[in-house]
Amino acid sequence: MSVDDSSDEEIRVRIGDVPTSWYDNSSFLGYDLDGKRVEKVLGPDQLDKHISKSEDPTWWRNIIDHLNAKKVRITDEMLEVIRTIRARKPVGKSFDPYSDFDLTAPKQEFGLGTDVLPPKRSFQPSKWERIKVHKIAKAIEKGWIKKKREEKEEVFDLWTEEIMEEKAGPPKWKLPGNIESYNPPEEYLFTEEEKKEWEDKDPMNREMPFMPQKFMALRKVPAYENIVKERFERCLDLFIAPRVVRPKIDIDPESLIPQLPDPENFRPFPEKLQMKFIGHEGKVNSIDYYYNGEFLASGDQNGVVKIWEASTGKCLESCEFKKKVLCVSWNPVMPILAICAGKYIYLKSFDCSEPYEIPNTTPSESKFATWEWENGEVKIKLRKGVSYITWHGKGDYFSSLCKRESTSSKVIVHSLSRFQSHKIFSRQSKGGVRSMAFHPKRPLFFVATEKNILTYNLKQQLLVKKFKGLECPVHITTHISGEHILAACEDCKLLWYDYDLSAMPYKTFPFHKKQLTYVATHKRYPLIATSGLDKTLHIFHAQVYQDYMQQPLIIPLRVLQTEISPLQCLFHPKQPWLASAEGQNICLYI
Amino acid sequence: MEVEVTFKTSLGQEWTIDGSYSINTDSKREDLQDIILHILQKSAVLMFTLHNQPLTNTLQELLTSQNLSTEGKIELEFFIQIPPLKSSGQANSGDWISSIQNFSSSIFVSNYSGYIQKFSNMNLDREKMIFTGPLKSFNINNETKLICAISKKGLNSILDIDFNIIASGNTEHAEKCVWNPSGSKFAIGLYSGKITICEINDNDGVIIQGNKKQHVDTKGITYNIIETCHTDLVSGVFWPSFETLITTSFDHNVHQVDLEKASISSSILCPRSVQCSDFSSNMVFCGFENMLINAYDCRNSGKIFSTCASAWVRTLKIVGNAMSVGLENGQVYLYDLRAFKTPTHVLPAHEGKVMALDGDSEFLYTGGADGCIQRFTFT
């Protein structure tokens, strides 16, 4: 081990590990750094030693340093160093072997070897502690270890001001009146009978705890004998039955009702009657907007169908049928209007819209329907009167509802391109069919009976789902997203079904006072409208989110009063306008 | 209580009033008018405004409505009120009127029966059935004196002033048409939201009625369609300069279209669908179905003012300093553009809705759903 010590430089004789006994016969001890001989320093002979011992008490301090070839006198400091070394103690005054152990100092400071790197576990969280903590946490979680609750003994001072603030103050003493006076008026004094009556009574039942007495002077008033008892009872009363101030619950019932957002934030929505389409002489049964909102078709009780310019209310065309028109419905893709009049369904286009000629096709034979083509128009004859029609989104298929038919033949699906009609139910279903609707995106068909809404997959030809909880629905429709179904019922309720959520209604809206007649949804704005026989139209904001975790936001916005009970209400395809069939007129709310 | 008032006007030097006057806050318009006319020794019907709000009742109410106190000085602006209108003639068109234009001392009227009619001094001078369906709109160019007329079904024709058809063509369902300043081209606003720029060519005209094409002995029309203009019905088209087209639509937008690039250079978003509009001096005035009337500056797309009528705004026309507005309930409101909050005059013009308006400094013409054309004179 090499030691970088400056004392190495003081050694003159550079013989290294060569034993000095080799130089016993020579006059020199060795060689210095320059290669010159270093002559031996001769020590005192025996006689000199003896003399020095007797004369110099510190003779032992004189020694010869052979390595450096000089005489050295040992000082006290040298002596101390030698003693310390002999006692196997560390040398150096500045070194304190008992200094405080510094845990934070790196180990290198303690001279344990500067080359040794500290182990990784010294600066990592302890693995064993982690295992131990995990075990304890698991035990607490499982309930094996229970934390003891420290019970604090509550001691409170009854007479402190803090407590008195929380509790009600003591009952006030009744101020003394005339009867407590030491010289009361004569009328307050007891008669003999009253005295006897007072004394016979049980002290608990006495009206007054004392008998009024009369003294002629104050100095003659004796000490009150019951003072101690009275005070004791007072203290007892306060202690045993302390009064507490109970906060009076003063909640306004109106404040418990959740605050609905301001309808002003949900504009635009229909608010006011702005226009009337006047021209029908009979009661308007059905209305429908052209797919782009340019025209409005209407059919009335007298069999008259009118086409109106939707923005101005001008009647552009009119045609008459022999039977009353119960339903009109525009094809969602082509400029064809389906008209239900009696047993016939007429499919025709009008001059004001884009003129369209339905191509002629050989119709297939059917027991339920007979197809006739003439000059680009089609007439379908059914066995019984048709009351309702609804188109599929792609414009080729449409279904018709014949209410007087046998239950299995009520619903018939027709194909415009093939001139075909199909009865889709092979056997009688329980309850009459009341309404139906196509899913806007999927091959599903919804049929509303008296108690249920049945969902059929048209491709697989299977009953897929059954929605319950409704009573005699009048009309059903689907939300533009296709995930929600709305049903207007005779029991004055509007039911909202979430297709994926549950078979029971997600929300029920019992706002109408009489039977509902129609429910409509807007294709662009988050709006729903219902019409009822109570002469009202209810407008709702219905925001449906694409995030399935967020529930639809449904808020009632406005109730519009009508003069006549509307039979149908319908939103414009693009504008936030609501048209309703009210008697002989069609009213437009904006 | 009194307030210190100074008067300002743009009527000219002879109407200038110097200094300030201490006026009682209970004074009304008539009192202030008397003061001004007494000072100036003139005679007129004056209207007073404070920060563009008209003085309709007392001065104190006007100050209170604007949160002003009587301690400071206020500056009242006055101008000669639009004189009241008097009905001076009536004519019948036979069907709902779709459009009216005042041109060289006559009025031209189109109706829903497809007729275009010329009335001179409220007497029917000439008429011709141009289309079998409703004639939705027409426009007469001052330079060439040609008439472009469009029907609802998309048929369009160019006529001369004597109603002779010069050119004809066919496009989609159309709503409005307008000539460019020189009369060489005209623009048609379609129901689908597109704009078609048309010009006459020398080829034969082709008309499509029903599914049948029909050749006619007139010139044809060439169409250049601007596809990406609006997404809904175009309710107004204006061609103020050769390179710029201003269009309004049911899709709530007012677009400024650069015709050289055939793209939209700026847009203004309105609160509702623009039912009717007019353009004047870089300002576009829009009427909405919720009874609102807004004016926007096309240069910076900013809203200048907003006011409310009493019914659906059906038609709108700027006549000099006045804005005339035709409503669903048959009334015509006349607003002074210098004090636009309150209508200056309310005219019970028609029994049905007011469908068209036009006018000049002397007359105001209105056409309604009752088939009547009314003429009002500014007295």
From TrEMBL, chain A:
User: Keyword annotations for this protein?
Assistant: Nucleus, Repeat, Ribosome biogenesis, rRNA processing, WD repeat
Q: Which GO-annotated molecular functions does the record name? A: ribonucleoprotein complex binding
Pfam hit, one: BOP1NT
Q: Which GO terms describe its cellular component?
A: PeBoW complex; preribosome, large subunit precursor
Q: Which domain of life is it from?
A: Eukaryota
Query: WD repeat boundaries?
Result: 277-318
- Give the UniProt subcellular location, in the record's own words: Nucleus, Nucleolus
- Signal peptide region: none
Q: Answer whether the UniProt record assigns the keyword rRNA processing to this protein.
A: yes
The residues covered by the BOP1 N-terminal domain are 23-270
A single Gene Ontology biological process assigned to it is: maturation of LSU-rRNA from tricistronic rRNA transcript (SSU-rRNA, 5.8S rRNA, LSU-rRNA)
Q: Which PANTHER family match?
A: RIBOSOME BIOGENESIS PROTEIN BOP1 (PTHR17605:SF0), RIBOSOME BIOGENESIS PROTEIN BOP1 BLOCK OF PROLIFERATION 1 PROTEIN (PTHR17605)
Please identify the protein, giving its name as recorded.
BOP1 N-terminal domain-containing protein
Which species expresses this protein natively?
A: Stentor coeruleus
From TrEMBL, chain B:
Q: Which InterPro entries does the UniProt entry name for this protein?
A: WD40/YVTN_repeat-like_dom_sf, WD40_repeat_dom_sf, WD40_rpt
Coiled coil segments of this chain: none
**GO CC field:** U4/U6 x U5 tri-snRNP complex
The biological processes this protein is annotated with in GO are: mRNA splicing, via spliceosome
> From the Swiss-Prot or TrEMBL record, what is one GO molecular function term?
U6 snRNA binding
List the SMART domains: WD40
Superkingdom assignment: Eukaryota
Q: What is this protein called?
A: NLE domain-containing protein
Organism source for this protein?
Answer: Stentor coeruleus
